[in-house]
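The instructor's notes for this session suggest beginning with a concrete chain rather than abstract definitions. Hand out the sequence below and ask the class to guess, before any prediction is shown, which regions might be ordered.
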Amino acid sequence: MKRLPTPDAKTEALRRRRVLHPRPEAVSDETFLRNDFFDTRDLVQVKYEMLRRVRQDGQSVAASAASFALSRPTFYEAQQAFEREGIPGLLPRRRGPRSGHKLTDDVVRFLVEQRAGAERLGAPELARRVQEHFGVRVHPRSIERALARRKKVDR
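After discussion, reveal the predicted structure:
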């Protein structure tokens, strides 16, 4: 039975790129256990082989997912992503909003204009004005961060 490698530079590289298998020790696929070419830590490689077992070898989805220590929903997500994009589709995507969905360019411009007035407005007052003007609730701390980012860009 193949032993898992100790943490090393590859493990750290996989972790940084968010492709480190969360449970490499639970992978029970014989090919991964007997062949040093296959690495149970590499989530992209594991997902690809899981898909291949079903498509090429006719293994059931449940059996394949279990032997690669992944869930059936993960199998179906990987299958769709692979069909759509090939191997790059197996790379993880960042979660959450891709940009400030409340603090749009228009809202930030509004904040800068409001702050440029004679009176020095605090973030709570700016949040109130944004809600009144745009109908969007924004936390005062988010406003402070957005204005600080804007200040860095303007320098």
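Then share the key points. The mean pLDDT is 90. The radius of gyration is 24 Å.
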